[in-house]
Amino acid sequence: MGSLHEWHCTRCDGLWLPGRVVRDAIGTAAIDHLPTHAVARRLRCPDDGSTLVPVMHHGVEVDVCPQCTGAWLDAGERDKILRAKPSTGQHIVREASSDPESSFNVLDATGDAIGTLLEFIGDALSGL
Known about the structure:
It is built from six helices and four strands; from the N terminus they run H-E-H-E-E-E-H-H-H-H. The chain is α+β, with helices and mostly antiparallel strands. Helix 4 crosses helix 6. The relative contact order is 0.23. The protein has a four-stranded antiparallel β-sheet with strand order 1-4-3-2. The radius of gyration is 13 Å and the shape is globular. The chain has one domain (4-126). The chain has helices spanning 4-7, 19-26, 75-84, 89-96, 104-110, 112-126, and strands spanning 15-17, 53-57, 60-64, 71-73.
């Protein structure tokens, strides 16, 4: 399943949100518009090795995998999102799934921050 601890890079303080978590939170409609290619980037998806595609939204760059839809936020990007947007994640988590096997069991335990980040990513992808 995974946990916030597993998604957090202790070396750079970045955060990886696996594709299954992103899809569970925002659905697939917004993801359908994601470009399938990236411009000369070195960032690779830790799950499938694909080159991550940068998506700009409100001055924040989110790197998204065009294959699995996982999203990478470096520490500065994550903090900028959390400072700019009031936390509403618990509301999203509760509406998103009633399936006890869902990825949202992990999100419930991590609180509003992950929900806020997922909401931002959903907004970024829906604007493509």
